[in-house]
Structures are given as C-alpha cells and as structure tokens.
Specification:
The chain is about 45% helix and about 15% strand. The protein is built from seven helices and seven strands; from the N terminus they run βαβαββαβαβααβα. Strands 4-3-2-1-5-6-7 form a seven-stranded parallel sheet, sandwiched between helices. The longest helix is centred in the N-terminal third of the chain and has 16 residues, at about 15-30. It is globular and about 45 Å long. The N and C termini lie close together (about 10 Å). About 40% of the residues are buried.
Length: about 170
C-alpha cells in the first residue's frame, strides 16, 4: 500500500501544521503504508520524508530534474521527471490514497487535479484533505457552493473528505 502526501515547500508555516504532518505520516506508516511525496528538503516535504525515515517506511520521492539540488538524501526510491505535470502523474501512479496536508498553491493544484481525476474515474484512490485547524474550510465552502449552484453534483462532492484531526485522517486511511 502507498499513500501520497501533497504538502507545503515553505519553511514559513505555523509549526502545528508540520507537527500534524509528522504525526499523520507516522500513523500511515503504522498502518503499513509506503510514503510517496515530492521528495525534497523543502518545508513540510522534509517533515514528511523525515517521518517516513523515522518510522522505517519506504520513502519514495518524485522530483523534477530542475529541483535536483533539493533532493532529500534519505529517499528509498527516487523517480525523476522533466516537468511538474509529469511529476503529478508519476506521484499518483499506484497510490491507494492521497492526503493533502496544509500547503500552498502547488498543493492546491495537485489536490484539485486529483479530485478532477477521481470525478472522471481516472484515479481510484481515496482523496483526503487534512483540514488541520480549519485550514481548508474555505475550500470546503467553495465545493459546497459549487453543489448549491449546480456546478458540482452532490455525489462527486462526497469523493473528497475533510477530516480535521490526526486521528480522523488516520481513520480515513483505514
């Protein structure tokens, strides 16, 4: 089993988000998941990779060649890509679940693309949004607005879940 983590590359985020990331990755490892991430030493990506190493999980990184100088040194496996689009596709390849941790515009891009692929029946894993401290409340409200205005059907809205604690994310991964 493999779980993919989308997350921040910033060092400037609230430490509670990185603590939650660490705890969620450790919980995923305890459930037997291998960890897939962006595979760099930047921001929460490093936290995810560190936690995978700490817990003894397989630590898989997918990195575009132009980011080679940021590769995390403790990866078990590294897949190189030429573009960010190719990276997103390779990251999802063979994963059973995607967890979006609090992150920036890149995380949002990865998450929305994955949600669209689930809706189109092109990706068959779980889509879990770690709504730690309400970080993703605006996105939840937007998706609910889409349903209310007919831009998204209610059944498709149910394809993405927003657990708000480490324990709820862990339950969603089971």
């Amino acid at each position: 089993m493999k779980v993919l983590f989308y997350c921040s590359a910033s060092f400037e985020i609230d430490p509670k988000f990185n603590q939650a990331a660490h705890d969620i990755v450790c919980a995923a490892c305890a459930l037997g998941y291998d960890i897939v991430s962006g595979g760099t030493i930047k921001g929460t990506m490093k936290v995810v990779a560190d936690a995978a190493v700490e817990c003894g999980a397989k630590n898989i990184g997918v990195i575009p060649r132009f980011m080679e100088q940021y590769v995390y040194p403790g990866l078990t496996e590294c897949t190189w890509t030429e573009t960010m689009s190719e990276r997103k596709e390779k990251m999802r390849d063979g994963v059973d679940a995607v967890v979006a941790l609090p992150g920036g515009i890149g995380t949002l891009d990865e998450l929305i693309e994955t949600f669209v692929l689930v809706k189109l029946d092109r990706y068959h894993g779980k889509v879990i949004v770690a709504n730690i401290d309400g970080f993703y409340e605006p996105l939840k409200a937007l998706l609910d607005h889409y349903v209310a205005t007919g831009m998204l059907d209610a059944a498709s809205r149910q394809l993405i879940v927003f657990p708000s604690t480490v324990e709820e994310v862990t339950e969603a991964l089971k």
